[in-house]
What does this fold into?
Amino acid sequence: MFPIGCTFALSWILLAGLISGEQSAGASIWLAPSNPTVAVFANQSYFVSCKAPGAEKIVWTKTGEGDITPTSGKIHVEEKEDGMDLVFETIRKKNQGEYACKATVRGQEVEKKINLTVFKPLSFGETAEVQYATEGSDFTIRCDVGGDPVVTATWKVRGRSLRPSPRHKVIDNNLSIKEVTLDDGGLYVCRATQSNPMIADFREMNITLKIQHEPRWFKDHTKEAYGFIGGTVNMTCSAVAEPGADFIWIKDNKTLQPSDDVQIFNSDHHSSLQLYIYDDSVFGDYECRATNMLGTMARVIVLEQATKPAAPTFKIKITHPDSFVLEIEDSDVVSDRGQDAAARNPMDVTGYVVQYKQPSLEWSRAQEREFERMPSQPYRVTGMQQDTSYEVRVAARTAAGTGDFTDVQVEKTKKIVAAAVPVLNSAQQLVLCHSLLTLLIAALASANIYI
It folds into this structure.
């Protein structure tokens, strides 16, 4: 048992505590979010609500700068029921510091504080998405990433993490490559991370590395081409280069220029020369030269004279509503058109060109199908209209080009005929009617319906 005086004193202390607690509860203030330490990246937006029910006065202040009074702008306050919001529309580094919400509730001053820390977000600055290195040189792929807290960069190449090696080193977040080869070209990913106990972030940037090198020929280079007088021949020259190569064609020490008989089609890695062979002078050696700022390569294609393929023979073997089935045979006749056929290169037939059209159209508007040669196999030409006449002709194709067309054959596609409905005679009709009645009566009986 406590002495009477001690008990009396304890009672007064408890009563005073209760009264103090009631007063504190009556002068409450809180923040939402309630975290007193806030970490954000610059250029973000943020707001915090201050609640003080029953307050006679409420203000936001920044330590060292005083009250915040604007009701609009980058930093402003907005009055709400029982409180006031502090709004940052776009946070800057200079906005960091200590902020306090102060309220007067029943004559008592109360406050809550937050400490705002602003970090610089990750940025790749002016890092180029495509970077160029010269074959055989040392090169550094730039990843100019910055931010606060400290940024660390790791690298991936073609989807796989890149580990340091004698040829690859990461220096100040950039990737250094020693003695660049063509295999070093491709897609790299610079992955930047920043973290501390308050905040963390990561971002990635794709960087394509292109290796500049002198022209190199593709492996499947053609050394010979064939053509015949009166025909057209195409020769192609292909070289991989970075930057892309410029192509020229040379014959008899003269650079060829486009004309009625010469057409040249160029791209970064290919050049096609199309010639109309008007006489023997067109045959001979053609030099294709590919050049970029790092070097020049040249190759020769020899255009040789060959026998013009003779027109084959064909017949329309089967007709359908939408197609013809052709049987085509090579001709034993040499098409020399006045040439000395014995002095030319005979070429094997590799395929056929089939043209077809309606009689009212010109051959310039004919439809065309190309087939690879298939001995003893029929050739089906599709895409026709039913019950329609068509003119058809065929030409043989060799490595030297397409020869003369055959004489025209005319054939008509079949008509689609709807299946006829069978007609029953009187006796058949009576039998059918009797069967149907029998089935109907049985069905009604099974349902306990009688007539």
